[in-house]
């Protein structure tokens, strides 16, 4: 325990201060050299806290993100579509688990992160609070939501925290497949009957703006960006990634034969980018406050699933305890 003065302040300890300065200089040098911080390396408390916040939010998003699509597994229009959708939703569970595991290396347990999600004190992506009323929503989620996810997550493969960066490599590969399957669903519908084309257009109309808001608030309102970029957790700002995403979508929408619902969308020769219309940030804030169309439903479902799964966790713990007792007995016998 740190010794303190009568007033409660830590007593002066030049040796401890010097060790802290060395650790801090080592951390700064690794970041400056574009190196990786590993779990046992010294790191500022605020860096650790930021990572746990972002990684747990990311993991929570993958887990909650299974719901809007899980909703369509039993209603997918063919056996092949059903098998693909099941595989995609399973991938998302896997992504959540890699990310919780990576976040655990920072000293916060998965149980703590899960409790925070269930208590409503941890965030998950705004995008998963929108409903999925038609099959075309599976296409729009794949094309737009997974498309935005890849744009945001590719740079995270170069994030300064090793376990997060490594988890992102596999996640991004799987997300690329997810995006293509979404694009292919929309292409099939767009080239189908008039009713199918309209269903695809309607889904794109509903998911376009929310997918642009996935990148977070405009840079001027982003509380964490500057520090996260200095620490090389984030490599690009929210607006930079949003712009890249819009630039990518325009030719893809043309290939799909669908229209992006944005009157402000036009090529800006001077900037070499597409301009796009204002987004409804009041809606974004309302969703973050828990007032989106599906916030209550998503959390209620997750809580129910957690309770329903209690017996699995109990059984796994009982099995682990039994194995540990057996192992200990075996070791005793071989030591005798
Ligand atoms: N939704 O200072 P800012 C997926 C919050 S999963 C909710 O810019 P930061 C997929 C932010 O947390 C997609 N909250 O924050 C899964 C902060 O609030 P707090 C998930 C948001 O962290 C299944 C405040 O607003 N991807 O792709 O620098 C099926 C100020 O923001 C959102 C990730 O999580 C939002 N959209 O930047 C299909 C990627 N945006 O914490 C697909 C990893 C902002 O101070 N995360 N907030 O209360 C990131 O890259 C960054 O955390 C963000 C935000 C770009 C999202």
Overall description:
The chain has 336 residues and is mostly helical. The protein has 13 helices and two strands. A two-stranded antiparallel sheet has the order 1-2. Helix 2 packs antiparallel against helix 4 (79-104), helix 4 packs antiparallel against helix 7 (162-190) and helix 6 packs antiparallel against helix 7. The radius of gyration is 23 Å and the shape is globular. It binds benzoyl coenzyme A. Residues 53-54, 57-58, 61-62, 65, 92, 123, 125-126, 145-146, 149, 152-153, 214-217, 222-225, 228, 234, 238, 288 line the site of benzoyl coenzyme A (BYC).
Question: How would you sum up this structure in a few lines?
Answer:
The chain has 13 helices and two strands; from the N terminus they run H-H-H-H-H-H-H-H-H-H-E-E-H-H-H. It has helices at 14-32, 45-64, 66-70, 79-104, 110-119, 136-153, 162-190, 194-213, 225-230, 238-256, 281-288, 295-308, 310-335; strands at residues 266-268, 273-275. Helix 2 (45-64) runs antiparallel to helix 4 and helix 4 runs antiparallel to helix 7 (162-190).
